[in-house]
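Batch manifest line 152
LIGAND: zinc ion
JOB: complex structure
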Amino acid sequence: MGVTLRAIGRGLALRCPNCARAPLFTGFITPARRCPACGVRHMRERGEWLGSTETTLILSLPFAALAWLVLGAVPGLTRDARFALTFVVFALAFPFVYRHVRGAWLGLMRAWEDGAEGAGEPSGLEWEGLAEDQAERERRQAERAATRRRNE
Ligand SMILES: [Zn+2]
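JOB STATUS: finished
ARTIFACT:
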């Protein structure tokens, strides 16, 4: 549990969950594929971020709720304007919340996958390799089908 919490904490702080020596993101919301300090792969599987988006949605709602309450105290503000401004606050909060949620999410994923021993690192490169194999298989199948049609 200590390892998991440490990895989540490092991710939440936008640092590599494995070593904390390098930043997790290369851009504002673009995570580094690999940690430049320890070499651990961050991006391993397609779709492993899915839950982080939903979590971000939920965690961004309090910002919208707060904006709604604060804007309610502004005299002369129409309900439509209040709603529009609340949405703007929500939209602005979302990417900031997303970075930290995604970092924490990544920490959780790495802790689950690697375990306390740091063993067994399923690799994104392996996944990419499988995707390439699949594309190659499909290309050959299409070629064979085309050859068969020509020979008939
Ligand atoms: Zn690292």
